[in-house]
Write a structure and sequence with these properties.
Layout lengths: L21 H4 L11 E9 L7 E12 L4 E12 L4 E15 L4 E16 L29 E15 L3 E8 L19 E8 L1 E2 L13 E11 L2 E12 L2 E9 L4 E11 L3 E10 L10 E9 L18
Antiparallel strand pairs: 1-2, 1-15, 2-3, 3-4, 4-5, 5-6, 6-7, 7-8, 8-10, 9-10, 10-11, 11-12, 12-13, 13-14, 14-15
C-alpha cells in the first residue's frame, strides 16, 4: 500500500545520543574537537516489534588550520523491516571556521554526498497474497518497480556558534534539494528537508565556564529541535559529568504526543569514550515496542601538531 501510493513521505533516523554522533546532528561540528576523531554509532529501535529499525553510523573529522576549517566524512546505513527497505549514504564535509572575537567562534559547513534507497521486493507481503481462512501466501498481482535501487546526490549545510568554548547554538538543514526517491517512475516521493536547531552549555561546577579540566564535576543542559515534513520533535535534557562517568536524562516530545524518556550512562577517558542509552517509549505504543537501545564509541587521536590557531568547542560527548 505504501509503495503503490502516489505520494509517500519518509523521515531520517534520529539518534538519542546527539553529540556522540556530531556530524550526523550538524555538519558544522566537523573539526569542533580540533584533533582527529573517530565516532561509531549503533541504534536498535523498537526491537519488540520483531523487525524494527536498526541504524549504523561511522564518521571521522579533524581541524586543519591551513584551510581554516574542519574536514569530515560520514557513512550511514538504516535497515528497516528486517532488510525490506534499506537506506545508505556517504558524504564529505567542509566546515569553515571564523574566530569572530577572542571568545566567539563561528562555523559554516557544506556537506555533499550520495544517498541510496534499496528495496527488497521479496520481503513484501501484499493483501492479495493472503488467502482468507488459511493464511496461505500466494503470488501477488502488484507490479514490481523496474528499479529496486534509487540513488541521488544529496546536499546539506550547517551553522554553529560557540561562546567562550562552553556555550553553543547551531542549526542544520539536510536534503536541501529535497531529492525524488520514488521507486516507480510515475510517482513522486520527495525526501523532506530535515531541519535541526540545537543549543546548550557546559558548566564546570568547580571552576565555572573557563575550566578545561574534564575531571571536574560539570553539568550540561541542552535542547534539540528536529523537523522533517510534518514530523516534529523537541528534546530537552541534561548531562552530568562525574569523571570518568557521564549520566544523562532526556525527554522527547513530538509536539502532538509524548514519545520517549531517555537515560544514558557513559564512561570516558581523555582519548576515548563509550556510551549506552535506552529510550523508554511513553506514547500509546507503550513498552511493547521494546524501546530503543543505542551504543556509541569515539576515539580522540593525538593532534598531529602541538599548537592550533583555534580551541575546541566544549560540546557534550554524548
Amino acid at each position: 500500500m505504501i509503495f503503490a501510493s502516489v505520494i509517500t513521505q519518509g523521515q531520517d533516523a534520529v539518534y538519542s545520543q546527539f553529540y556522540a554522533n556530531p556530524l550526523y546532528l550538524n555538519p558544522a561540528l566537523a573539526g569542533s574537537k580540533i584533533c582527529p576523531r573517530l565516532t561509531l554509532n549503533y541504534r536498535n529501535q523498537w526491537p519488540g516489534l520483531g523487525k524494527g529499525y536498526v541504524t549504523y553510523s561511522a564518521a571521522w573529522d579533524q581541524q586543519f588550520d591551513k584551510i581554516s576549517g574542519g574536514v569530515g566524512v560520514i557513512a550511514n546505513a538504516d535497515v528497516a523491516g528486517g532488510g525490506t527497505l534499506n537506506t545508505y549514504s556517504g558524504s564529505a564535509i567542509y566546515s569553515y571556521r571564523l574566530q569572530a572575537t577572542r571568545k566567539i567562534v563561528l562555523n559554516l559547513a557544506l556537506q555533499a554526498g550520495y544517498l541510496q534507497y534499496s528495496l527488497n521486493w521479496d520481503k513484501l507481503v501484499f493483501e492479495d497474497q493472503i488467502v482468507p481462512g488459511t493464511g496461505e501466501i500466494i503470488p501477488t498481482s502488484e507490479q514490481m518497480p523496474s528499479n529496486l535501487n534509487i540513488g541521488t546526490i544529496d546536499f546539506s549545510t550547517g551553522f554553529l556558534a560557540g561562546y567562550n568554548q562552553r556555550i553553543y547554538i547551531g542549526a542544520a538543514m539536510h536534503h536541501i534539494t529535497m531529492p525524488d526517491m520514488a521507486f516507480y517512475t510515475d510517482n513522486l516521493n520527495r525526501l523532506d528537508m530535515r531541519i535541526t536547531l540545537h543549543a546548550g552549555a557546559l558548566i564546570d561546577l568547580k571552576q565555572g565556564m573557563n575550566s578545561d579540566d574534564i575531571e571536574n564535576l560539570s553539568v550540561s543542559p541542552n535542547i534539540v529541535y528536529i523537523q522533517q515534513g510534518h514530523f516534529r520533535q523537541i528534546n530537552g535534557g541534561m548531562y552530568v559529568n562525574l569523571y570518568p562517568f557521564v549520566a544523562g536524562a532526556w525527554y522527547r516530545h513530538t509536539i502532538d504526543n509524548p514519545d520517549a524518556a531517555i537515560v544514558l550512562i557513559g564512561f570516558q577517558q581523555e582519548k576515548f569514550k563509550v556510551g549506552y542509552s535506552f529510550d523508554f517509549t511513553v506514547s500509546r505504543l507503550s513498552m511493547k515496542t521494546g524501546g530503543a537501545h543505542e551504543v556509541s564509541f569515539a576515539w580522540q587521536f593525538p593532534c598531529p601538531v602541538k599548537q592550533f590557531k583555534y580551541k575546541a568547542i566544549k560540546c557534550p560527548r554524548f
